[in-house]
Write a structure and sequence with these properties.
Blueprint lengths: L34 E11 L13 H5 L3 E12 L13 E2 L5
Parallel strand pairs: 1-3
Antiparallel strand pairs: 1-2
Length: 98
């Protein structure tokens, strides 16, 4: 809840029972080559007058009146030569409903 190294996606409206999310942009998520990188996804809902840019860490979600609805982990294997950073830390994604 206090990790401030998180990647946030754009806000997504929810129209159907299935929602596809994409959070990798602007080099916010960094991976280590030749390793299985752990990524934690946090699906959150925020009040309509709040924006993902106001979230610096997951603890901010509740402070802004939002709620973490679901959490999932995924391992992303990166082949040799494609490393973006020497850091091997999980990144977190947050989304918002309009």
């Amino acid at each position: 809840m206090t990790d401030d190294w998180i990647a946030k996606s754009i806000a997504y409206p929810i129209y159907a029972p299935t929602l596809t999310l994409v959070a990798m942009r602007d080099n916010q998520m960094r991976f280590v080559g030749e390793a299985n990188n752990s990524v934690e996804y946090n699906f959150v809902i925020l009040p309509y007058d709040k924006a993902p840019e106001q979230i610096r860490m997951l603890g901010d979600v509740e402070k802004l009146g939002g709620k973490i609805l679901a959490v999932a982990d995924q391992g992303i294997p990166i082949p040799p030569g494609l490393s973006q950073s020497p850091l091997n830390q999980p990144a977190t994604s947050t989304t918002k409903r309009h």
